[in-house]
Amino acid sequence: MTTALLVLTLASTLAVGAWLGAWFDRLAPLLYGGRAAGPLAPLRAGAAALLRPRIETEAPDRMNARLAPGWYLALAAAGLSVVPFAPGAALIETPVGIVVWGSCEALTIVAVFLHGWSPNAPFPLIGAYRYAAIGLPVMLPSMFVLIAAALPAESLSFTAIVESQREVWNIVRQPLGLPLFLIVGLTLTLRGPMDFADAADIAGGTSAEDSGPGRALWQGARLAMLVSFSAVAATTFLGGPLGPALPGPVWLWIKTAAIMALTVAVGHGVARTTPSRMLTILWVVLLPLSFVHLLVSGVLAL
Amino acid sequence: MIDALVILLVLFAAWTGWRVFRVDSMIRATFSLMLSFISVGAIGVLLSAPYIGVATVFMMAVEMMVMGIFMVMFMMNPAGLNPMMMVHQHKLSIVAGVLAALGLGAAVLTTTLPTDPVPGETDVVSDLGHELLGPSMLIFETAGVTLLATMIGAVVLSSRRGRYGQADEGSRPPGLDPGGPPAGRQPEGEGGHHHHHHHHGGH
């Protein structure tokens, strides 16, 4: 019974969250004086994409071309399944929650790579290799940030991480964590400064050859991953379902929506640099910074 | 139930492992191998080793992505979509494969494996942590430092930038035919002005 309810909650969180994320994307132009669109615009765009015919490239890897959006969506769902909607109520209650989420992150790079590799076309392939080169070093700050959050909880489970934040949220005692984790989120959702897969400078990258239902599903999976990442960030740094008066899931939804809005705003507001320069920034600045973050968090947690 | 799942995962791991040698591209081989390892990780989770199982999935996803890129780089198969033969040195590999299978099989059959199930309330993750940073610390740290040194060494050796200048300074690619003009892009810097003399129809 509880399991059925949690499955339903997870599915509806992903669906409603994906719509909200798509609307945030259409509100974002207001940040730089552009025109915003209404809440129905993403639904119209999705329906239009579904009705368009699919295009076939020459000699593609059909299996991976069809499956890649499905993998991406499944990874978003698997990542959300270890997040507790109320204290102690995750769909999959595991002692190694942050490792499960880490696996979803790493497999996301594989799914995006296969999405770009499978059409057998130049722009998607460039996007795939660029993304793999940037995505792999992003995994390292992600691991350090998550391990740092596990230190005060003395556990790898998200439920214990939520419990450890009853007194004070992790965003207060680990201030570097959320900014570093936001970079991971931008990478996982192919957004703004970290969008080296599907960017406009390579004509849409891994989705350059997408059309029809496949394109709709890929964009939907991107938004679902935004929801999952934001829920994980809200759980790790903002106390997840903890909060006064309102029930746990409502607090988690509010915090998730706030992180989603922040991620969308940063994605629209920060420029993207070249892959080589970003690679230097990742290895030379962000990796040592996440070491420092882990060290400080470890000393504070003692 | 768990037995049936383990058997299914073993079969899937063996089948995807076999596919590694039957597919015709480096990328397909790489990710077949990844699926094989992920099944092994899932077996670990089912056998009450959640950390080792899930960490296997995480590590293999990252490692296979790196391996795929490196294989495409070194195998001169730019997209990884060109059909190619995945096996070579047939006789040697058959002998090595049979010997390895016999050796590992003998090792498994002659070892007395524990049969008692893990009690439900055991905190296996915390036990593993205490083991790794307690009695097994020396092995664990030795392996960790060796891997780190290997990674740094590989990065240093493959880096284009170095303290004595660019690694490929003055290097010439080999000719397409023996003694012929260098293939592909001409080295920059030295002899740049007679660039067009070297130009040939090999593109």
TrEMBL record, chain A:
Entry keyword Transmembrane helix: yes
Protein's GO biological process: aerobic respiration
Compartments where found: Cell membrane; Membrane
Entry keywords, A to Z: Membrane, NAD, Transmembrane, Transmembrane helix
GO molecular-function terms, A-Z: NADH dehydrogenase activity
Main location: membrane
A Pfam family: NADHdh
Transmembrane feature ranges: 71-92, 98-117, 129-151, 223-244, 250-271, 278-301
Membrane topology: Multi-pass membrane protein
Any one Gene Ontology cellular component term annotated for this protein: plasma membrane
PANTHER family: NADH DEHYDROGENASE SUBUNIT 1, NADH-UBIQUINONE OXIDOREDUCTASE CHAIN 1
Similarity remark: Belongs to the complex I subunit 1 family.
This protein's name: NADH-quinone oxidoreductase subunit H
Automatic annotation (TrEMBL), chain B:
Keyword NAD recorded: yes
Record EC number: 7.1.1.-
Catalysed reactions listed for this entry: a quinone + NADH + 5 H(+)(in) = a quinol + NAD(+) + 4 H(+)(out)
Main location as per UniProt: membrane
GO CC annotations, alphabetized: plasma membrane
Coiled-coil blocks: none
Keywords from the UniProt entry: Cell membrane, Membrane, NAD, Quinone, Transmembrane, Transmembrane helix
Location within or outside the cell: Cell membrane
Top EC class, one word: translocase
InterPro entries, per database record: NADH_UbQ/plastoQ_OxRdtase_su6, Nuo/plastoQ_OxRdtase_6_NuoJ
The keyword Cell membrane belongs to this UniProt entry's keyword annotation: yes
Disordered as annotated region, ranges: 164-203
Protein name as it appears in the record: NADH-quinone oxidoreductase subunit J
Organism expressing this protein natively: Maritimibacter harenae
